[in-house]
Amino acid sequence: MAIDLSKPMSFQRSVETVAAALNIALVRLREEVTFDERDPTNDPLPAAHLLLAMLEDATREVDELVGKLEA
pTM, whole model, 2 decimals? Predict the structure, then answer.
């Protein structure tokens, strides 16, 4: 999926893009855990913690914004 940053992206398109990127990241993380072929110079754990923190923050913010949309 090509991302064209020269034009504004609709909300729907941005959600689809994030969903695709999240799916790719989760597949890669599952592969890291399943095959456990970790390269000591490329530890996936910090990236996994960062992803978790970002998702938790995004969940809180989206919950707040949905509440405002529903009000």
Answer: 0.78
- The dihedral built from the CA positions of residue 21, 26, 29 and 35, taken in this order, carries a sign that is negative
Query: H/E/C letters for each residue in 32-45?
Result: HHHHCCCCCCCCCH
What residues contact 65, with CB distance under 8 A and at least 6 apart? none
pLDDT digits (tens, 9 = 90+) for 9-61: 999 999 999 999 999 999 999 988 888 766 777 888 999 999 999 999 999 99
Task: Please state, in angstroms and rounded to a whole number, the distance separating the CA atoms of residues 26 and 62.
Answer: 20
Alpha-carbon Rg for the chain, nearest whole angstrom, is 16
Three-state secondary structure call for residue 11: helix
CA–CA gap between residue 17 and residue 12 (Å, rounded): 9
Residues 22, 36: Cα–Cα separation, whole Å: 20
